[in-house]
Amino acid sequence: MRHVVPWLTVVSVLVLTLPSVAAAGWYLMTASRIEDLDAPLNRWINTEAFDGAKGCETAKTREIKKAEARYIEVSNWPGSSGNTDYTIGKMREFIRLANEALCISTDDPRLAPRTRR
Fold first, then answer.
1. How many distinct structural domains can be found in the chain?
2. Does residue 87 belong to any structural domain of this protein?
3. 42 pLDDT more than 90
4. What is the dihedral of CA 114, 96, 54, 13, to 10 degrees?
Protein backbone atom coordinates (compact mmCIF):
# COMPACT_ATOMS: atom_id res chain seq x y z
CA MET A 1 0.00 0.00 0.00
CA ARG A 2 2.93 2.30 0.67
CA HIS A 3 3.88 2.30 -3.07
CA VAL A 4 0.35 3.03 -4.28
CA VAL A 5 0.08 6.44 -2.59
CA PRO A 6 3.20 7.98 -4.26
CA TRP A 7 2.09 6.57 -7.63
CA LEU A 8 -1.38 8.09 -7.22
CA THR A 9 0.23 11.41 -6.29
CA VAL A 10 2.34 11.40 -9.45
CA VAL A 11 -0.67 10.51 -11.63
CA SER A 12 -2.79 13.20 -9.94
CA VAL A 13 -0.13 15.85 -10.52
CA LEU A 14 0.20 14.87 -14.19
CA VAL A 15 -3.56 14.92 -14.76
CA LEU A 16 -3.90 18.30 -13.10
CA THR A 17 -1.04 19.91 -15.02
CA LEU A 18 -1.68 18.49 -18.50
CA PRO A 19 -4.79 20.59 -19.24
CA SER A 20 -2.85 23.79 -18.53
CA VAL A 21 -0.12 22.73 -20.95
CA ALA A 22 -2.67 21.83 -23.61
CA ALA A 23 -4.51 25.12 -23.05
CA ALA A 24 -1.42 27.22 -23.76
CA GLY A 25 -1.92 29.33 -26.86
CA TRP A 26 0.40 31.32 -29.07
CA TYR A 27 0.91 35.02 -29.72
CA LEU A 28 2.30 36.64 -32.82
CA MET A 29 4.55 39.28 -31.27
CA THR A 30 5.88 42.25 -33.23
CA ALA A 31 8.17 45.09 -32.27
CA SER A 32 6.49 48.44 -32.86
CA ARG A 33 9.56 49.91 -34.58
CA ILE A 34 12.96 48.77 -35.81
CA GLU A 35 14.59 50.44 -32.80
CA ASP A 36 12.54 48.17 -30.49
CA LEU A 37 13.75 44.85 -31.93
CA ASP A 38 16.18 44.51 -29.02
CA ALA A 39 13.52 45.39 -26.43
CA PRO A 40 12.25 42.68 -24.06
CA LEU A 41 9.34 40.67 -25.48
CA ASN A 42 6.96 42.01 -22.86
CA ARG A 43 7.29 45.41 -24.58
CA TRP A 44 6.45 44.03 -28.03
CA ILE A 45 2.90 44.14 -29.43
CA ASN A 46 0.67 41.08 -29.34
CA THR A 47 -0.78 41.39 -32.84
CA GLU A 48 -2.82 38.19 -32.82
CA ALA A 49 -3.53 35.11 -30.68
CA PHE A 50 -3.73 31.49 -31.85
CA ASP A 51 -4.58 28.03 -30.54
CA GLY A 52 -1.38 26.53 -31.93
CA ALA A 53 2.09 27.32 -33.23
CA LYS A 54 1.22 26.30 -36.80
CA GLY A 55 -1.58 28.87 -37.04
CA CYS A 56 0.76 31.53 -35.70
CA GLU A 57 3.51 30.71 -38.21
CA THR A 58 0.94 30.72 -41.03
CA ALA A 59 -0.22 34.18 -39.97
CA LYS A 60 3.38 35.42 -39.78
CA THR A 61 3.99 34.21 -43.34
CA ARG A 62 0.76 35.91 -44.46
CA GLU A 63 1.84 39.22 -42.87
CA ILE A 64 5.25 39.04 -44.56
CA LYS A 65 3.61 38.45 -47.94
CA LYS A 66 1.19 41.34 -47.38
CA ALA A 67 4.03 43.70 -46.48
CA GLU A 68 6.04 42.60 -49.53
CA ALA A 69 3.03 43.01 -51.84
CA ARG A 70 2.38 46.50 -50.47
CA TYR A 71 6.05 47.38 -50.99
CA ILE A 72 5.88 46.28 -54.64
CA GLU A 73 2.67 48.26 -55.11
CA VAL A 74 4.17 51.43 -53.63
CA SER A 75 7.45 50.96 -55.53
CA ASN A 76 5.54 50.94 -58.80
CA TRP A 77 3.77 54.24 -58.22
CA PRO A 78 4.38 56.52 -61.22
CA GLY A 79 6.83 59.34 -60.60
CA SER A 80 9.04 59.69 -57.58
CA SER A 81 8.84 62.30 -54.92
CA GLY A 82 10.25 62.72 -51.45
CA ASN A 83 6.96 61.48 -50.04
CA THR A 84 7.10 58.31 -52.16
CA ASP A 85 10.69 57.66 -51.11
CA TYR A 86 9.67 58.08 -47.47
CA THR A 87 6.76 55.67 -47.98
CA ILE A 88 9.02 53.09 -49.63
CA GLY A 89 11.42 53.37 -46.69
CA LYS A 90 8.56 52.76 -44.26
CA MET A 91 7.43 49.76 -46.31
CA ARG A 92 10.94 48.28 -45.99
CA GLU A 93 10.66 48.71 -42.23
CA PHE A 94 7.29 46.93 -42.20
CA ILE A 95 8.78 44.03 -44.15
CA ARG A 96 11.66 43.76 -41.67
CA LEU A 97 9.30 43.96 -38.69
CA ALA A 98 7.11 41.24 -40.22
CA ASN A 99 10.16 39.03 -40.75
CA GLU A 100 11.39 39.64 -37.20
CA ALA A 101 7.98 38.87 -35.63
CA LEU A 102 7.97 35.92 -33.26
CA CYS A 103 5.46 33.23 -32.43
CA ILE A 104 5.61 32.87 -28.65
CA SER A 105 3.74 30.51 -26.35
CA THR A 106 1.35 32.37 -24.06
CA ASP A 107 3.14 30.89 -21.05
CA ASP A 108 6.61 32.01 -22.17
CA PRO A 109 8.32 33.61 -19.13
CA ARG A 110 9.73 36.41 -21.33
CA LEU A 111 6.19 37.84 -21.56
CA ALA A 112 5.97 38.39 -17.80
CA PRO A 113 6.17 42.01 -16.68
CA ARG A 114 9.56 43.02 -15.40
CA THR A 115 9.82 43.88 -11.76
CA ARG A 116 11.67 47.04 -10.75
CA ARG A 117 14.44 46.75 -8.24
1. 1
2. yes
3. yes
4. -10
